Amino acid sequence: MGPGLAMAQDAPPANAGQATDLDTVVVTGIRASLEKSLDTKRANVTVSEAITAEDIGKFANTNVAEAMSQIPGVVLDRRFGQGERVSIDGTDPSLNLSFLDGHPVAQSIWLYGEQPNRGFDYTLLAPEVLGRLEVIKSSEARLTEGSLGGTVLMHTRKPLDMDAHSVAGSLSFNKNDQGGDTRPSGSLIYSWKNADERFGFNIAAQHYEEAVDRQGVEVFGYVKANTFPNQTGAAAGIDVPNFVNAAWFQQTRERDSANVNLQFKPSDELEFNLSGLYIKESFDNYNQSVYNFLTQRPGAVDRITTTGGVGAGGHSNANPVFYDNNVRASEPTTKGVDLTGKFQTDRWGVSGQVGHSKSENSLEQWFIEPVYTGGYSWDLKRGLTFDNPAAASNPANWAGDGFMGNYGVIDTETKDTYGQLDFNIRFDSVFNSLQFGVRRGKHEEDYRQNVYVGLPVADLVTVGTINPANMRDLNAGSGRHVQVGRQNVIDYVNQYRDILRPDAGSFLNNTYNIEQNNTGAYVQADFATGGWRGNLGLRYVESKTDGFAYEPGGAPSFDNLASKERRTSKKQDFVLPSLNVVYDTGSDVLLRFGAAKVVAWAPYNQLVRNTFLNDNTFTGTGGRAELDAYESTNYSLSAEWYFAEQSVLAASVFYKDIGNYILSVSNIERQFNSNAQTAPAFYQSRIVGTNGCTTDGFCDYSITRPENAGKGKVKGFTVSYQQPFGDTGFGLTANYTYADGEGANGTDLPYQSRDAVAISPYYEHGPLTARVSYNWRSDYLAGGYVAGAPPASVDDYAELGASVSWTFDDRLTVALEGMNLLDSEYKQYLGREELVAQRFHTGRRFMASFRFKF
């Protein structure tokens, strides 16, 4: 099944009776969900964590990732305020696979300029869909390969496990205090089964809306003060921000989803389940940027001041101020169908799973870039301050400087096709079960970009404007800038769509496809004797990756595309042994040990020679077809003391000895600048001489590509505590994670925080439930939020959420929830904290909910 666990975990281990004492006490609400989670954790052979549907609903969250934030070893990245992707035990989110009912779910990108990622985007799934979620940290042979840190198993609710004619649902309204209207969301699940409980179905449907508003400052790189010939009063080595940007991202996220399960059990031995998944999302957004570009005309900078040794101020009378308007349409659609079946007797069994999922998105971007050429000063705290605010607020003074904008389309399609067959034989001996099986999985990724150029130049009087922008935290002119508006941008670009011409460079650099086929076989023996239980297994995997991309030579051109094609193929095989051992001391203390060889792969776009370029900042990212797989030997050791009902005190240590770690490295490459396709006079006056640009159109770009970086390691530990305090109604869950890792030559590993804390006190008495959740993670290395942004570090980040609810007659619950109550700042910096790369606020989020069941 799926990753080898979907069916196997439906039935408890042969000796799981030792872990069922907690079932003798009947509790409800938060305590019931914590009890079920501990039952799952205690019965598992692996080092693992679990949360149940009730627990998911009791946290303040709008997606599954946020519900996982209290799990030991799990930390979230919140680039847009919401949790999207998760790191497990100090590993990159792209190195942790997630499965829904044992199978992968295809997913397509939603942000224009972003690239496909193996890490699961949890905004895809509504929390209401799930009945249980597990994080498996120590691998088993029956687990599908591909995870370095841990595997996430998500289980939907099955109709034969639910009451006939049961109905549950919710209606909620959420609000962001930084911007956006109040948005509604709702969910409904209905389940039915016949009287003899042999056939049933359920359907879960959900509609979700939420406004996202992100405002702040971006700095697109630093240069030395001596770059500017007229600078005075500053040391030559001072770092000066080359671009200081007032960034404003606005979005209303919408998601409509449905999940259907048909379950048929003609006998006690035979069972089938057919499920279907449909998700339609809208991630349309409007991103505005107002920024300077000092090195375009360095002689125009007449003054530089310093603060704390970093260039933080200056003046320009001729350098332009750019106003980028990026209006984007993004509507990912995901569909999937999955069929499972199993036949199980007292002595042997066979199970199988086949399915297919597909996700596609056609992202559009309408882009205009007017320019203002009046004088201004700037610094990192206030952005830009215009010498003449009245002139800067006049739309007639903003116009294209030889370039006005373009129209772009990214077509992306992802497919996952899989099939698995598993067998098991049971014995009356120390080795009580033998499992073996085979799996075949195919992943297809297709990415194509077309940008259309030649938009006529105009001023903003012609384009049209709306009310001036009024951004927070930027009290200078760049935060109060003239504002075009979403529809004005679309209307201006659309009227010239017929005359725009395709840009060859964008197509050649950003068109590729990749197909990865993995064939795996495993054998696993389960054993139990006395207080000991565990498993020993071996998995063999053969992986073949075929890629296609264009390798242009000279100036990009659509002529003779076949000669520019580059096809690559890489084949590898792996032998992956694993061992998991549990010792039950008989006094409510469990000791666990796990050791396994694991393998994972880089994100799909990194396995082909594609190149995404930012022609304004002369940066870019790309892939490298020669990459090897990640290989690691992982060790885990844990101790768990179940000292009272619904209570545990646990500690675990982990060590990952990584034989090959892939890191992103920046190097200078000569690349063609697409601005060369505008008028030659404009190109020469604006581009030639900047960043090594020559009259043939080629410039020096800082391109970040992945490289095989040799050995790496991750070591750390987690400590977790959970307890209700008698009959007081109060209780607490808390955990701490320490992770310390490095690549070759001591380089930092991406998305790894050394310290992470999660604390959640709760109160539950009668109809009243209240809970506070606090998460904090220390700084960590990460990339920019779009391709082309340089690697940066994210500063410490804290998230505070709270919820309170009242339940009427066990059928209706009214709840109030708050998220990001600290209004935390998401800050990135380039090496040193004073070299700010980004500072964003996304606002506090509030939600009122009505939940019902009958």
Descriptive account of the structure:
It is a single chain. The protein has 854 residues and is mostly beta strands. It is built from eight helices and 46 strands. The strands form six sheets. The chain has a 30-stranded antiparallel β-sheet that branches. The chain has a four-stranded mixed β-sheet with strand order 1-5-6-4. Strands 15-16-21-22 form a four-stranded antiparallel β-sheet, with no helix packed on it. The radius of gyration is 28 Å and the shape is globular.
How much helix, percentage-wise, in residues? under 10%
Radius of gyration: 28 Å
Quaternary organisation of the protein chains: single chain
Text of the CATH class: Mainly Beta
Instruction: Give the strand tally.
Output: 46
Number of domains: 1
In the CATH hierarchy, the third-tier topology is known as: Maltoporin, Chain A
Supply the CATH superfamily name: TonB-dependent receptor, beta-barrel domain
State the major sheet: 30 strands, antiparallel
- What structural class is derived from the secondary structure elements? mainly beta
List low-pLDDT spans: 4-27, 784-789
Termini separation comes to: 33 Å
